[in-house]
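Title: Prediction job returns without error message
Component: structure pipeline
Severity: low
Priority: P3
Assignee: unassigned

Description:
Job completed but the reporter wants confirmation the result is attached to the right record. Sequence as submitted:
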Amino acid sequence: MKISKHVHSCLRIEENGKTVIVDPGNYTFEANALDLGKIVTLNYLLITHEHPDHLYIPLVLEIDKRFPNCEIISNKSVAEILKKEGIEVNTKGNKDIKIKEVPHERIFSGDVPQNTLFEIFGKLTHPGDSLHFDLNTDVLALPVQAPWCSTTEAVETGKNLKPRIIIPVHDWHWNETARNNFYGRFKDYFKNENIEFIGLTTGELIEI
């Protein structure tokens, strides 16, 4: 499996000749961090929930236009939003992408949206904005920083779930210095728990 990160919670995943993009949000779009011209084919576009840092309509429309045969998978709330744009959404998942509704963490203003966890190719879990879920894969995309969570709670979640590898997501709010500092601390901490922490930089590609 090949994985690259494209700001915040947006991941690109390649496995068995198939390509997946998860959560192309506004931070990814504003940073021009996802070069669609470098993607030959796109099989699945996964959206965990409707917040703009995970679902940015202009970027989704661009993806849909460039890859009209791409299957978009999300929940009913996102499906209703994209239906207005003439885009169909699979809310059931398939053999490659398993979906499960898990709670979006509490936020200080407004209601929490429907939030979907994805198990991707049986190898990687992306929980969107949740720290309350079960883990059935070796690799975890762990949200590590947000207005709705403490970093300590996120780290404890990763420790308790015991994946083989952790990829950090949801960390746009840190500047580069803070991000690098925390990545180093996470790596040392999780090493003691026999968990490999891989702090991806934007566009960096790894194979696991």
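Comment from assignee: result matches the submitted record. The domain at 2-201 is CATH 3.60.15.10 (Metallo-beta-lactamase; Chain A).
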